[in-house]
Write a structure and sequence with these properties.
This protein has 13 helices and seven strands. The chain is α/β, with parallel strands linked by helices. The protein folds into two domains: about 10-105 and about 215-310, Rossmann fold, CATH 3.40.50.150; about 130-215, DNA polymerase, domain 1 (Orthogonal Bundle).
Amino acid sequence: MSEHLTVLKAPAVEALLWDRSGFYVDGTFGRGGHSRAILAGLADKGRLLGIDKDPQAIAQGLALMEEDSRFAIAQGSFAEFSRLVASSHLEQPEGLSGVLLDLGVSSPQLDQAERGFSFLRDGALDMRMDTTSGQSAAQWLAGAKAAEIAQVLKEFGEERFAKRIAGAIVKAREETEIVSTLQLAKIVSEANPAWEKNKHPATRAFQAIRIFINNELGDLEQLLDQVVDGLAIGGRLVVISFHSLEDRLVKRFMRKEAKGDQLPAYLPVTEAQRNCRLRLVGKAIKPGDDEIAINPRARSAVMRVAERIA
């Protein structure tokens, strides 16, 4: 298994950490790369809560709790953001100083064949972030109708040949159960008539099914609905996205909150009356060539930062 290399670690922590004694949330703890960097910058009074679905990530978080009393870990989806923060045993101020989200799949998740995320390694077709709940990818594919599979592939994978691939999956499962990653990758690859250069033909399908199984975009929307209310004035929201769908969602949300209420242009209102709650901080940041050379999985990352102003 390869070591997980935290993407945009230094820029993310630099953008997030403006109050060394503040209370922060790492909403996607993963293997703790960002959390450890945040803790390294916190003062003794600073606090950090990590959140993750993955039982393996929680095990790492519990170990970090033993090392550092300023840290706590909570298992669950960041869609439950407000509840998880409120139920933390950490001493909390009126508002959060910052929230960090790294929306990528960690290297250990990709590299463990039994997790079912990778089309390059043969393993059980699972794809769940939380392996203790919900249906696996194999269970969903066993019963979903062709139209439903096609919709998922098109909506979450932006797959041009969604209907063709969905039909191939349904036809294949009539002959035998689809239970392994390489089995699905072969079906998708053979049904895909136009392979993209430098991209495995099953990339979009695996992305789409993973997003659907874990309700990734739905959870992100629920978090964004809660997060601004949880931030203190001056609090930062830092989000690292890895594909266009989630980045688009984050960008639209931040811009909407920065523009405030969309009132007719002729109304004589002040900026305060527009109810602008966020300020965009800088432009979108992407990994440099040096980071991509060390960690090719970083190449699609985009980081956006916003600050609460009201």
